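Field reference: sequence -> structure
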Amino acid sequence: MPLSTTQKKQVIKEFQTAQGDTGSPEVQIALLTKRVDRLTEHLKQHIHDTHSRRGLLSMIAKRRRLLNFLAKVDKKRSSVIEKKIGFKE
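Structure field:
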């Protein structure tokens, strides 16, 4: 389920680390989280959609890899993004 351009711009603006930042791990994690949330809602209604479920699992794995990378590089940034997207309280 692709995000609309306005939703994508809003997420990028909220999570960017510098002006014009679209590729930092924080932005990528936030965009993947938004897509995962939308796809999860879709799969609640369409239980037998196995192709989308496989894509969901792929997105979750990619998000986990990005979080692991960020934890290796900078633990503080990792904990901040996890709190912002709702992984830790």
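Note: The chain has one domain: 5-85.
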